[in-house]
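Input (structure):
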C-alpha cells in the first residue's frame, strides 16, 4: 500500500511541476529572451534557438513531456528518500 501511495505521489508531483514549468516557458520574459536569441542568430551570433528542445517555439504538449521527463527522476529520488526516512 505504501508503494502505491509513493508512486501516486511521484506521478502527481511530476504532472503538477511539469505543467507549471511548461506554462512558464510561455511567460512574456521567456518569449522576449527567445526573440532576442533569434535576433542574435540572424546577426550571426550564437546558436539557432529554433533547434532547442524546450521553448516557446514548441507546442505546450512537447514542453510538458520534456519537463515531465526531467522532473520525474527528481521527484522519484525525493519521495523514495522521504519514505525511507519515515
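Output (sequence):
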Amino acid at each position: 500500500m505504501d508503494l502505491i501511495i509513493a508512486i501516486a505521489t511521484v506521478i502527481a508531483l511530476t504532472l503538477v511541476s511539469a505543467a507549471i514549468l511548461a506554462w512558464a516557458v510561455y511567460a512574456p520574459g521567456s518569449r522576449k529572451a527567445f526573440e532576442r536569441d533569434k535576433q542574435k542568430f540572424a546577426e550571426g551570433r550564437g546558436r539557432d534557438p529554433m533547434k532547442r528542445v524546450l521553448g516557446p517555439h514548441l507546442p505546450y504538449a512537447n514542453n510538458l513531456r520534456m519537463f515531465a521527463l526531467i522532473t520525474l527522476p527528481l521527484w522519484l529520488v525525493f519521495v523514495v528518500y522521504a519514505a525511507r526516512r519515515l
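Notes: Residues 2-85 form one domain. The CA atoms of residues 41 and 48 lie 6 Å apart.
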